[in-house]
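User: EGF-like domain-containing protein. Structure?
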Amino acid sequence: CPPFMYGDEKCNTSCICHKNNTNYCGNFDGRCYCKNGWKFSDCSILQNYCTEPNTCPGPYSKCTSLPGGHDCVCPIGMTLEDDRCIDSATCTKMNCSHACGVTPDNPEIETCYCPKGMKLNSTDKSTCFDCEESRYGEDCQYTCNCNRINSISCNKSNGLCNCHIGWQGPTCNNDVDECTLMRQPCNSSVQCYNTPGSYQCLCLPGYEKTSVDSECK
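Assistant: Predicted structure:
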C-alpha cells in the first residue's frame, strides 16, 4: 500500500494517524506506529516524560518534557551547581520559607520556591505546604499511581510507592510469591501456598495439626 493507506488489495482506506508523529501505518489494519515521544491511537498526544517517578531528582529542578525524552532546568533566579539548583543569596525583600530566586534581568523581582512535594501558599507567596495524599512532585501537579490497597504511601517528592509486605513493583500491583523465596516461610512438613499479598502453610498428605498453633505431625 502507499504510505498512510491500508485495506485489501485496493489499499483505498486512509489511516487516521498524524503523519508528522507517525513512523508508518499498518497495511492491513491501519494501526498507527508512533514515533518516539508520541502516543495514542492516532499518535496525536505527546508523551509526558515528566510524570515518570523520580524524574529530575533535585528538590528544586524543574522537568520539561520533550519528544523522546525530557530536560531538567532550574527555576528563574536559581543556578545549577553540581546537578542541584541553588537559591540566590541576594534575596532581601521576600521572607521565603524555603528557597528564593532573583530574576536576572530585574533584581527587584524576587520569587519564593518550594521543593518537590510541597506547594507555594497562594496568599502570602512565601510559605510552602505539603502536597495532598495522592499528589506529588513540582507544585504537587502529578497524581500518584500507587495501588492504594497494596501500598503504605506515595513519596510526595518523587512519586515512588512504598508497598505493604507481600506486594512489590512500581505501583505495588505485583504479588510477592513467598513460596519461591530462598528462605522458605513454612517448615519441611507443610506445603506453602501463595495467596494475594500473603501465603498459607498447609500440612502435607499424612500429616495433621493437633491444634491451631501446632506443627504438622
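Residues 144-175 form one domain. The first strand starts at residue 5 and ends at 6.
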